Amino acid sequence: MTIVTHGEDDRAILLVHAYVDGELDPANVIAIEQRMAAEPKLAAEQARVLALRRALRERLPQKAAPPGLEARVRRTVGLTAAPPRPTWLALAASVMLAIFASSSGTWYALQPSVGEGTSEAVVAGHLRALMAPQPIDVASSDRHTVKPWFNGRIPQAPRVVDLAQEGFPLLGGRVDVVGRTPVPSLVYGRRQHLISLTAIPDASVATNKSQSARGYNVIAWTADGVTHWAVSDLNPGELQTFARLFRDAPP
Amino acid sequence: MSGEDTRTRFERIVQPHLGDAFALARWITGDRADAEDVVQEACLRAFRAIGGYAGGNTRAWVLTIVRNTAYTWLARNRSAVVTAVDDLAATEHANANLAEASAGGAYAANPESDLIALADAAKLETAIATLPPQFRDTLVLRDIQGLDYREIAAVTDVPVGTVMSRLARARQRLIRAIEAGE
Q1: Model's pTM, two decimal places?
Q2: pLDDT digits over B59-95, tens only?
Q3: What is the C-alpha separation between B105 and A125, in angstroms, rounded?
Q4: Among A239, B79, B95, B115, which has the minimal tally of Cβ within 10 Å of its Cβ?
């Protein structure tokens, strides 16, 4: 019989909580109010639930979202491309314009050797990849799969380094277009962040140049006549670490 | 659906709930930086799924995605934390029954005014953080974020009856923890 009694008492307790939460229909409200009036145990339960609710409301600090969160989220889904915040469409339009301009005779000015334009283009490639359902065209954590994939797509397959042990797993690769040159981009992960590493045959960029463009951190360095551009929303410190590990990895 | 549509829908449906999204993610992960990563990933999921959003309660829809994202995120990045979820069924049923808990021990001895006097922010925070995850989520959604039972049932994907019993158990545990001065 105890079990039955417990079941009924449990039900009464649940009803007290639901009563405090305003979740009961009128019939149950009347029933539980009568029971609380008659049974001190239930009245005490109601008092405690009310006290707890008050304590939670008055004592617990609000978990306010960090001020930069909205901007970060809008950037992630491609609604904003960070300060000076042109829209994604405007950014895409400017890339299209660059491609158009480069095909009409003035493209020397837009060659990959122009540092500023190149960083814009690699950031645009990174953004476009984030917008796509898959940020990569070949998804593999195996560098022996990723590297050969580039053969036949671009003149020279990039150097691919395995940094999984260091916490930067290889996710895959894709082909970006900078100026009008197709170039290989490797994609690495760091927690939730993606790092695009674009390799451009060009030796004109100062080694280990670090900057931020459209709210993304960009690090560029040159080795063996190839400039590597690392782009990510990862913080500059960890992106530097990534750049150093990649640079110093044995061939 | 055009780009403009998706953009407007995202701003209308998801963006107003970023504060709630962050707060829930923060309670589940226990860390502000992790919560930011979770919200970022959840928003990306929401953005991609928004074409299929059929209407209804926007906050419940967003928080459902945030909660699911938070657990897959924890499983992927903090596998040790998540093991607790595996004991879900056990915790749910192995509990002493509600009426007994209500009547027993220190819990019954303290008038409710003591409860308020004892409950400082740090103690409440710790007590909530150490609740079993399914109890904690239900309590946070109801007593901190103010969702009703039906919304909580939707977000946590359980029947309303389960929401009721989890909520009562979560509150009783919290009250006991505060009164015991843990």
Answers
A1: 0.57
A2: 999 999 999 999 999 988 887 655 444 455 555 655 5
A3: 64
A4: B79
Asked whether A110 and A95 are in contact (CB, 8 A), the reply is no
B96 to A3, A36, B93: CA distances (angstroms): 12, 22, 8
The percent of residues above 70 in pLDDT, for chain B, comes to 79
Nearest to B169 by CA among B93, B67, B109: B93
Tell me whether B2 touches chain A (CB under 8 Å).
no
Residues 20-49 in B contacting A (C-alpha not used; CB under 8 Å): 21-23, 26-27, 32, 36-41, 43-44, 47-48
Is A43 an 8 Å CB contact of chain B? Answer: no
Rounded CA-CA distance A135/A173 in Å is 8
ipTM value > 0.90? no
Q: Which residue in A11, A14, A73, A134 has the most chain B C-beta atoms within 10 A of its own C-beta, making it the best mutation to test that interface? A: A73
Residue A164 contacts B, CB cutoff 8 Å: no
- Best of B116, B145, B163 to substitute, by most chain A Cβ atoms within 10 angstroms, is B116
Q: Residue A197 burial (CB < 10 Å; 0-12/13-18/19+)?
A: buried
8 A C-beta contact, residue B140 and residue B27: yes
How confident is chain A (251 residues) per 10-residue block, as mean pLDDT? 57 94 92 94 92 88 83 85 50 54 39 56 80 71 79 79 86 81 88 87 64 82 85 88 88 70
- Model confidence over B115-167: pLDDT tens digits? 777 778 888 999 999 999 999 999 999 999 999 999 999 999 999 999 999 99
A143-A145-A150-A155 Cα dihedral, nearest 10 degrees: 70
Sheet with A226-232: list strands edge to edge: A138-139, A170-178, A181-190, A193-201, A226-232, A216-223, A209-213
Best probe of the B interface among A6, A53, A69, A134, by most B CBs < 10 A, is A69
Contact A188/A239 with Cβ under 8 angstroms?
no
Per CB-CB distance under 8 Å, the chain B contacts of A133 are 48
- Look-up of token digits 């940094």: A163
